[in-house]
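Fold this sequence, please.
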Amino acid sequence: MTTSVGAGGSGGGLYIDQGQAVLRDGQIDSNQASFGGGVYLFSPSAQFVQAGGVVVGNSATEYSGGGLYVNDGQVTLNNGVIGGNTAQMDGGGVFVQSGSFSHTLGVIVSNQAYGGGGGLYLISGTLALNGGAILDNHAVKHGGGLFVIDGEARLLDGQIVSNTAGQSGGGVYLYGPGSFKQMGGSIERNEAIVSGGGLCIDMGTAVLSGGQVFSNTANEGGGAQVETGTLTLNGGIISSNTAWADGGGVYVGSSDARLFMVTGGVENNTAYGSGGGVKVRDGTFAHERWANREQHGQL
């Protein structure tokens, strides 16, 4: 399916008002619209299931959702590819205004947003990452892989890997009252030019109760940056991350920032400035169990 609509339209390839559309094979390719270059879901009863095929090379020429724009409704990615899409603003691959997005298999890959959320941008609603990968996406500003504002994002399995951000949150950027919970899977090999190579919490709450955050890089907070809000480590591992300045594992950056460690570990991270494991510039750092193994730099 290859079509093109003008700058004022929505859903360049496919517009779903109500009911269900299923993509099992084939492609939604090279379409353009202001909102949702490839696919646009309008109402709570709209459903899009991708069980194969590709949503590729689409563009949101003025606003958001290069591949998919979910105004409301339900999206399930069971297989296939959402790749090579671009958004002039946010959500190069997927933009979720409201509703739900479930990712079980397949890949969101090589999308770009000139604002935030190179792979996926969640304003409200729910996001469940149960497998597959958010891979090699880029945001000019924040959230190379994923940007969360007011919603709940959960990483249960799968990977957020090799994404880049021109500013903060190479893998994940959390801004607003929303939450991010990692119970499994990995956030790995992401890069942010400024802060939070793996994860940046600018507001909101993040809980790592499983999985790994490893081999990410940034100037500050190679693994994670807590600028305002709360990061709780309760079973996950933050390891082998690098900060070119401070906070190889975690950087706690302001009086409104809080880092709580219950179980899990911050291990084998490197800072070329200070705080190989954790750098607390300001704010709160409390731990019940501290795994400090070969941290290169000063705590």
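Residues 168-180+190-299 form one domain. The chain has two domains: 1-140, 168-180+190-299.
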